[in-house]
TrEMBL record:
InterPro entries: Ig-like_dom, Ig-like_dom_sf, Ig-like_fold, Ig_sub, Ig_sub2, Ig_V-set, JAM2. This is Junctional adhesion molecule 2b. Residues 19-122, 129-220 form the Ig-like domain. Residues 1-23 form the signal peptide. The chain crosses the membrane at residues 228-252. Residues 263-293 are annotated as: Disordered. It comes from Betta splendens.
Amino acid sequence: MKDMRMLTLPLLFTLLHSPFCVSVTVSSSKPKVEVHEHTDAVLSCEFRTEKDQNPRIEWKKRGKGVTFVYFNNKFTGSYAGRATIEGATLTIHSVSQKDSGEYRCEVTASDDHVNLGEASVSLNVLVPPHVPSCEVPSSVFVGSGLELRCKDKLSVPPATYRWFKDNKALAATADAPYSLDPHKGTLKFQSVSKNDAGMFRCESSNSVGAPKSCVAQQLKVIDYPLNMTILIAGAAGFLMLTLFVCFCVCVCKRGGCCNKHKNDRRTRSYKPPPPPPPTRNLKRYKPTQSFMV
């Protein structure tokens, strides 16, 4: 039994110092972190080394490029003064949406056989609803189409929307004169009537915080003025006259009257070739009779 122990100890010592032994190891107990805006985010990073008791610790953030968060035992950029580190665990204080992204913890143990290890942590900063921007025109003509828009670009996760008319929530029913899109925040009317006038407002909400609403705005539905009606009627009459003239021209072409006029014009414009000049009868020259003296 004593001989077995004596053989086991050198073997264990050899395995621990073997180049094939896994040295520095890095991991995270919580690789996905979700926190509310303006709270602290703790990005955990645990490591274990073989020999090196003071390994180099770095934190980086991935985006369009790679930026340093913690380098050479100090914080860089916007993290200076609002982040702390304990061991290799990083804490960012009062986070904002700009802090969302993927972070990487890197531990370098130069005395170990495998001297580099890393772990990734994703941070998602949740943002409660903000007061949405609402587009409601002050007036619209009867019978025209209309689209009201509502948008909250800051909330995370993205907000869903509800529209209210005179403080009553609008519902998308089969017989409603409008259509609603809760994800895009639109309220559409195909043809506005007098009954659609009222005070309109929009409310945005998500799972993070209380809903927020814009200030209600008055929508008036008005009739077309008399001069506008006359102008529209005149334009319609002119259009009908133009269509009638075009119709007559087409009928004339198909009926052949145009072709007949073309033939008449061709007949009038046709000139026969001139006849050849008449042949002149030239009298033969007869010499005069000479008289002998």
